[in-house]
Amino acid sequence: MAAKPLLQVEVVETYYGNIRALGGVDVAVNEGEIVALIGANGAGKSTLMMTIFGNPRARAGTITFAGTDITHMPTHEIARLRIAQSPEGRRIFPRMTVLENLQMGASLDNLQYFDEDVEKVFTLFPRLKERMSQRGGTLSGGEQQMLSIGRALMARPKLLLLDEPSLGLAPLIVRQIFDAIRQLNKTEGLTVFLVEQNAFGALKLADRGYVMVNGRVTMSGSGRDLLADPEVRAAYLEGGRH
Amino acid sequence: MERTISRNSGESSLFAAAIRESLFAGLISLGLFIMLVGLKTDQNIRNELVIEQRWGLLASLVALTMVGRFLYVLFVRPALERRKLQKARVAPKAAEKSYLARNWTKFAVLFLFIYPVLMVLMFGLQGSLKWVDNFGIQVLIYVMLAWGLNIVVGLAGLLDLGYVAFYAVGAYSYALLGTQFGWSFWILLPAAGLMAAFWGVILGFPVLRLRGDYLAIVTLAFGEIIRLVIINWREVTNGAAGVSGIPKVTFFGLFDFNISSPYYIAKVFDIAQSGVYYKIFLYYLILLLALLTAFVTIRLRRLPVGRAWEALREDEIACRSLGINTTNTKLTAFAIGAMFGGFAGAFFAARQGFVSPESFVFLESAIIVAIVVLGGMGSLTGIAIAALVTIGGTEILREMQFLKVIFGPDFTPELYRMLLFGIAMVIVMVWKPRGFVSSREPTAFLHERKAVSSAFTKEGHG
Amino acid sequence: MTTGTDMNKPILEVEHLSMKFGGLVAIGDLSFQAKRGEITALIGPNGAGKTTVFNCITGFYKPTEGMIRLNGRNGNEFLLERMPDFRITAKAKVARTFQNIRLFSGMTLLENLLVAQHNKLMRASGFTLLGLFGIGGYHSASAQSIELAKFWLEKADLIDRADDPAGDLPYGAQRRLEIARAMCTEPDLLCLDEPAAGLNPKESLALNTLLNDIKDNSGTSILLIEHDMSVVMQISDHVVVLEYGRKISDGNPETVRADPKVIAAYLGVDDEEVETVLTEVGDEQVIHELDAEPDPEHGPSASSSLMAGPISDTIGHSNGHGELVRVTPGASKAEQVEKQAAKAAAAPSAAPAMKKAPSPKPAAKSATAKAAPAAKPAAPARQPKAASVKAAAKPSDEPKKLSNTLSAPRGGVPDQLTQIKGIGPVNQRKLNEHGIFHFDQIAAWKKADVAAAEAYLAFDGRIAREDWVGQAKTLAKAAAKAAKSGGRK
Ligand SMILES: Nc1ncnc2c1ncn2[C@@H]1O[C@H](COP(=O)(O)OP(=O)(O)OP(=O)(O)O)[C@@H](O)[C@H]1O
Ligand SMILES: Nc1ncnc2c1ncn2[C@@H]1O[C@H](COP(=O)(O)OP(=O)(O)OP(=O)(O)O)[C@@H](O)[C@H]1O
Ligand SMILES: [Mg+2]
Ligand SMILES: [Mg+2]
C-alpha cells in the first residue's frame, strides 16, 4: 500500500443548507480494491457518494482521484476522469430507450469499444437485452437498477461507485451482480467503492470496509474483520437476511 | 501549518484569477457594448443617417465592468464563501425574531390602509392622485391578479399562460352588462367572478390531460382566442374600439362619484369637489378585493382542497393513489383562480371606464406569470413584493427625471423602462433562483412550524 | 373486525388476469386469491409482472383481460378493473405504496398524512364551502385527522420528524412514511411494493413488526411484493410466485421456498446456508447438449450469465399455459424445472428426489424447509456445465467423485479451511463431511474434483473463480513451512 490510493477522501464535510450531513469523513480506496461502505439509514452514505461527484460540494476537506484534486471540479469533468456512478434512486433517463441509456453512459474516448461493452452489459443482464428498445421509464424497478449499473459500466470506469446496487433486485440477480463485481475486479482490475444495506454480502465481497454513523466513519477494516466484529454484527447484520 | 501555506499560495492565485476574470469580463462587455454603446445611429439636419462614435462612453463602461469583476472576485466572493461556511459552522441558532419581523405582515397591511392618507398629507389632494391611482391601484391590481394566478400556478402547479383571458371575461362582463342594463357594480362583481370561473372550468376540461409545455401552449392559445373573439364579435363587444362609458362604482348606492349625480360625494358630505375621492375609494376597493383573495387563499390552503392542490403539484400519481379525484381538484383550481381574475377584471373596467382588447394582450399574462415566478411560487408575501418591484418599479421609472443629469438631457427614462425591467428580472433570478420567498409555509404542524426549503418543493409539471 | 357477512371470502380474487404492453405480455392469465386478515406475498424475478399486477389492482392500468374482485369489509363487492384509480382507494379501500417512492417531498410528514385523509376531510368541510367560512364540523374533523396522523407517525417511528419535509428523510424512513400515509386512508387492503428495499437487516426486522402489527390490529389485509426473503418468509401467510407473468407456485412460505421451480427461477441456492442440494435440473441447453452429444470438455463458464444462451428478441405465445412470454427458448427457469420433472417421472432412475427424498447428505443445519429441495437448480445460468451435466445425468446419491478424501483429519486436527477466501464455516463443515480436511487436499484438486465439489456445495464456477486451489496451495506451503520450523524447535 505504499502507492497513493486511487481515491482519497480527507476530512470532507458536506452540508445541506445548514445541516451537516458529513462531518469530516476520511476514506481511501486503493487501486484494484473493492471497498464497501455500510451504515444505518441516513448515515450519509449516499451523500458521500454524491460529494465525490461534487454534487453537493464538500465545504471542507479534499477529495483526490488518481492524484488530481477533484474537490472543486465541475461534476462533468470529474466524470471524464473515468469515475462512474450508479446513484441512489437509479436516475436513468426515463424517455430514452435502454440502448440509448447505455449510449449515454459510454464515454466518448472509448467509442470504439461501444459494441463490445454493450454486449458485455447484456451478457451480465440478459433481461436488458430482452427489453432493449423499451423506454427506461417503463422498465420494472429491478430492470431499471440493472440499467443504472450497466450504464455506469459503459463508461469503462477506473473507479466504479455503486449506491446500493442490490436494491430491488431478485436474490438470484443480487448474487450474480456480486459475482460479476468480483469478476470485473479480478479480470479487469476494476476498483469498486460500494454502499450496501446488505452488509453481509457487501463485506463478504469487499477487501475492506468502512462503517459510517451520523456522517462520520467510525470503523474500518478488512471485510472479514468487520464481519466478525460483534458491534458491526449487532448493528448491521443481525435481524434476518444473511 | 499546511493550512496557512495553502492560504498564502491561495491568495496570490486568487489575485491572478481576479485579473484573469476581470480581463474576460472586459472582453465580453466590449463585445456586447461595442455596437450597443460605441456606435450610435442618428439623423443629421438633412435627414441623413449618420453614425456617431462614442468611444469614451464605451471605454468607461468596459472599465467599470472590469473593475467590478476584479473587486468581486478578489473580495466579495471570498467573503461570501467565508460567510456561508461560518453560517454552516455555527449551529443555526433560531435567532429570536424581532417584534417587527414577527408581525410585519400586520404592519404591511396597516401601512396599505393608511397609504392614501399619507399621500394626501404629503402631496396634497391633487398631488396624491398620481401616487394613489397610477401607483397604488395599479400595483394592487397586479397583486390581486398574481395572487389569483398563484392558486393555479403556485399551488396546483398548472402553468397557465392565458390568465389574462379571465381578466378580460371579468372586465367585459361588467362593461357590457353595466352599460347595457345599468346594473350596479355590486351585483356585477360576483357575476363577473362567476362568469370567469365558468370559463375557467371550460378551459380546464380540455387541458386536464395535458401537462407541462403542452398545457402552457394550450392556455396561451385560449387567452388569444378570447381576445380574438372580443375583437371580432363586434355586435356585442364593439370590437377593437372597445366599450366606453362604463358606469362608476357607487358606495353601495349611498353616495357616488358622478359630479352630475345628486348623491355626489362632495354634495353629500359638503366638501370640495375633486376626482381624488373616487380614486381613493377605488384604492380601498381593490385593497379589500386583494385581501379577500389572500384570505381565501390562506384558508383554502388549510382545507383539504388546498392541500390537494399542493399535493398535485408534488406528485399527481401519488394523489390518485390516495383517492383524490385529480380532475375535480384541477378544475377547482382553474375555477377559483379564474374567479379572482374575473373580480379584478370587473374592477379594472370600473376604474378605467373603458375597456378594449388592447388591455388583454399576451404580454399581460406574461407579466402576471413573471410576478408569480419572481415572488416565489405559492408565497403571498413574495408575490406582493414582486408585484411592487415590477409594476411599481416600472411606474417609478417614469419619475426618474434626475437620470437626465447623468445620461444627458436627451435621456428619456420611459424608453429604458422595459430594458431595466428585464435586467432587474435577470438579476433577481440569479440572486434568488426560486423567487423572493422560496420557502414554503406548512399548512399544519404538530410541534413547531418550520418553513420547508425550496430544495424539496416541486414546481409541478403543468 | 366488523360483522362482515362473509368473513371467509377472500378479500381479493384475481381471475384470469392478463396485461399486454404492445407485443409484451406482462401478465398472462394469472389467478390467485388473497385471504382476509392475512399477508399475501407476491414474489418473482425482476420484470415478472408483480408491479404490473399492483397497477391493475389499483386501477393505474386497465387489464387487457380478466377480473379483479375485492370483497369489502361490509360485504360490498367491487370489480376493480372497472373502477377509475382514485375511486378504488376512496370506495373500495385499497391503498398502495410505490416501488420508486412517491411522497409529497415538499410537504411535511404531517401534511403528507393529512392529504391521505382528503376524502374524509372534504366531506367534513362541506366540500370546501362550509369549511371556508368555518361552519360545520370541519374543525373537529381536522383535529381527528391530526390524531390519526399522529397515531401512524408513532407507529412508523417518525413522530419526531413530523414537521420536517418528507424529502429530507433518509430512504428507509421515507419507505415507512409511505406505509403510514397509505394506512391513513384506512384501507381494507394494503398493497406494498418492496417496502424493505433499501433497509438494512435490522430495519427490515422493524418493518416486519410494523406489518404484523397492521395485520393484527387494524383489520387490514396486506398484499406484499418483496425481494427480501427475510421479510417474505417470516411474515407472510401465503406466497404467490410469478415468472414471466405466469404463476409458477402458490402456497405457504415453506412449500414455496422448497419448490424447485421457485428456486430455479428466483431464489437460487444460498451458497453457504442452504443444505446441499444436488442438481436435478440443469440448464435446458445443457440437457439438450447432453441428449445430443455429451461434451466432456465443457469447463466452467467465464462469466456468470454467459450461459443464458443466445437471446432472440422474439416474443412468442405458447398455448400450453395460456399466454406467456418466451423471449428465449430457455428463458423460463421454472419451465425447465417442469420439463425436467416430467422427464424424471418418466425415467425413475434419473431422479430419486423430486419429492421429499432424503438429502444425500445428512442435514447438518435445521434451516426450516431449506433441506427439502432435492433439486439443484441453483442459478442454472451459472452452473459450470460439466458439473451440471454430470449431476443431471446421474442419480444424485452417487456422485462421490472427489479423488482424495480422507476418513478423518490427519493427526485429528483439520486445517482452518475458512482461511481460503470463499469458504465460510458452513462450507468448511460440508467439506469436512466429504472428507476434505486439509489445504493440501484442496491444492491437489483436479478439474473433475472441482466440479464434483461444486456439485456438493451447490456452487457454480465459484471455486475456480475464487481460485480455491491456488489459495490452498499457498496455505498448504505456509502450513508445511510452519510445521517444519515448529519441528525444528
Ligand atoms: N437533499 C437533501 N437536503 C437536505 N438533507 C438531506 C438531503 N439528502 C439527504 N439529506 C439528509 O442527510 C442525511 C444523510 O442522508 P443520506 O441520503 O446520505 O443517507 P444514507 O446513508 O445514504 O441513507 P440511506 O441508507 O437511507 O440511503 C440524512 O439525515 C438526510 O435526511
Ligand atoms: N408501461 C409499460 N410499457 C411496456 N412494458 C412495460 C410497462 N410496464 C412494465 N413493462 C414491462 O413489463 C414487465 C413487468 O414489469 P413489472 O414492473 O410488473 O415487473 P416486476 O415484477 O415489478 O419487477 P421488479 O421486481 O423488477 O420490480 C417488465 O419487463 C417491464 O419492462
Ligand atoms: Mg442512501
Ligand atoms: Mg416492481
Number of domains of chain C: 3
Major sheet summary line of chain C: 6 strands, mixed
Strand percent estimate of chain B: under 5%
Q: Biggest sheet of chain C, strands in spatial order?
A: 6-7-8-3-9-10
Outline the structure in words.
With 242 residues, chain A is an alpha/beta fold. Chain A has 2 domains: 1-82 and 157-236, P-loop containing nucleotide triphosphate hydrolases (Rossmann fold); 89-156, no CATH class. Helix content of chain A is 38%, strand content 26%. In chain A, the strands form 2 sheets. Chain A has a 6-stranded mixed β-sheet with strand order 6-7-8-3-9-10, sandwiched between helices. A 4-stranded antiparallel β-sheet of chain A has the order 2-1-4-5. In chain A, β9 and β10 (216-222) form a beta hairpin. Chain A starts with 6 loop residues before the first strand and ends in a 5-residue tail after the last helix. Chain B has 462 residues and is mainly alpha-helical. Chain B has 2 domains: 2-88, no CATH class; 115-359, no CATH class. Chain B has 17 helices and 4 strands. Chain B has helices spanning 2-38, 55-89, 99-102, 104-155, 164-181, 185-207, 212-232, 234-237, 265-269, 276-302, 304-314, 316-321, 326-352, 362-375, 380-397, 403-407, 413-431, and strands at residues 39-43, 49-53, 243-244, 354-355. In chain B, strands 1-2 form a two-stranded antiparallel ribbon. A two-stranded antiparallel sheet of chain B has the order 3-4. Chain B is globular. By secondary structure, chain C is α/β, with parallel strands linked by helices. Chain C has 3 domains: 4-257, P-loop containing nucleotide triphosphate hydrolases (Rossmann fold); 333-392, no CATH class; 395-488, no CATH class. Chain C is 37% helix and 13% strand. In chain C, the strands form 3 sheets. Chain C has a 6-stranded mixed β-sheet with strand order 6-7-8-3-9-10, with helices on both faces. A 4-stranded antiparallel β-sheet of chain C has the order 2-1-4-5, covered by helices on one side. A two-stranded antiparallel ribbon of chain C has the order 11-12. In chain C, α6 (138-155) packs across α7 and α11 (260-267) runs antiparallel to α13. The longest helix of chain C has 21 residues, at 468-488. Chain C is elongated. The N and C termini of chain C lie far apart (78 Å). The interface between B and C is large, with 39 and 46 residues.
